[in-house]
From TrEMBL:
Skewed-composition ranges (Basic and acidic residues): 197-225
Assembly information from the UniProt record: Part of the 50S ribosomal subunit; part of the 5S rRNA/L5/L18/L25 subcomplex. Contacts the 5S rRNA. Binds to the 5S rRNA independently of L5 and L18.
Family the entry assigns: Belongs to the bacterial ribosomal protein bL25 family. CTC subfamily.
Pfam families in UniProt: Ribosomal_L25p (PF01386), Ribosomal_TL5_C (PF14693)
GO molecular function, one term: 5S rRNA binding
Protein name: Large ribosomal subunit protein bL25
């Protein structure tokens, strides 16, 4: 089991100082576990997070004893992608937990390989329930049964690992194969040459026509005295 050493932090501990010290602010809580703020060495947390993800049991070593938990949520810095905060869910020993596990698509769909279809992944996580010790890292989805356009993999079609129970709706579509889109070439609209000639002719006539509103520049005749 993966293990992390933790330190209890108080409200007086500034998060900025904790991060500068190379630690990740975190909190653990559960159905029968009060919310407790902690801090964890960042290097250790990154190693465990990479291996455990959000589906493997992580033992938190605390002053109150070992707390078996799951990484519930990780807040990342939007610029650097470095974890800024982590939530751990402490489950009751001897009880099943309900979580969402990531899906890994395996196999080759004949409708994609032979017919040029497109594999559409509808779901990327699946709700399951299991004892903490039986939790797999992910759920495998075999797409090799998709032989024709429109074929689907439903939640009920996925083989669950031992000790794992599906909690997703059985008829939920997980993946399907769609036919490739046919791109139609757009024909250019015909050009009406007669319209262009009429417009040009009208323009020439307007340019040749004298401006009747312009006052005459001719000299007025002076009547004889």
């Amino acid at each position: 089991m993966l293990t992390l050493k933790t330190e209890i932090r108080t409200k007086a501990d500034k998060l900025e100082n904790i991060r500068k010290a190379g630690k990740v602010p975190a909190v653990f809580y559960g159905k029968k576990e009060a919310s407790t703020p902690i801090s964890i060495p960042k290097i250790d947390f990154l190693k465990v997070w990479e291996e455990a993800g959000e589906s493997s049991v992580v033992a938190l070593e605390t002053p109150a004893g070992v707390k078996e938990s799951l990484i519930q949520d990780v807040d990342l810095d939007p610029i650097t992608g470095v974890p800024r905060h982590a939530d751990f869910y402490v489950f009751e020993k001897g009880h099943k937990v309900e979580v969402e596990l990531p899906l890994e698509f395996v196999g080759v769909a004949p409708a994609v390989k032979d017919l040029g279809g497109v594999l559409v992944k509808v779901l990327y996580k699946l709700k399951i329930e299991a004892m903490p010790k039986d939790l797999p890292h992910n759920i495998l989805v075999d797409t090799s049964s998709l032989a024709n356009f429109g074929d689907q993999v439903l939640a009920k079609n996925i083989t669950m690992p031992p000790g794992v129970e599906l909690k997703e709706h059985p008829e939920e579509v997980v993946a399907l194969v769609s036919a490739p889109r046919e791109e139609k070439e757009e024909e250019p609209a015909p050009v009406d040459l007669s319209t262009i000639e009429v417009e040009k002719k009208g323009k020439e006539e307007s340019e040749e026509k004298p401006d009747e509103t312009k006052p005459s520049e001719a000299k007025k005749e002076v009547p004889p005295a």
